[in-house]
Amino acid sequence: MKAREKVRHKKISIKRIILEGIESYTLSFLSYNFQRIILEGIERLKEITRLS
C-alpha cells in the first residue's frame, strides 16, 4: 500500500467508526424512548382500569 492509499483507508475507517457509533447511539436512544413509552402506556392502562 502506498502512503496516500493508507491515509485514504484510514479516513474511510474513521468515518465508518463515527457512523457506526452514531448508529448504535441512535438505536440505544430509540430503544430507551420505546421502553419509556411502553412503561407510560402501562401506567395509563393501570389508571384507566383503576378508575373504571
Task: Describe the overall structure.
With 52 residues, the chain is mainly α. The protein has one domain (1-52). It has one helix at residues 3-51. The protein is rod-shaped, with a radius of gyration of 22 Å. The termini are far apart. 0% of the residues are buried. The mean pLDDT is 88.
List the helices and strands and how they pair.
Blueprint (H helix, E strand, L loop, with lengths): L2 H49 L1
Count of individual helical segments = 1
Mean pLDDT: 88
Helix content: over 70%
Order of helices and strands: H
- Class by helix and strand content? mainly alpha
Radius of gyration: 22 Å
- Terminal CA distance: 73 Å
What share of the residues does DSSP label as strand, in percent? under 5%
Largest sheet: none
Taken together, the total number of domains comes to: 1
Overall strand count: 0
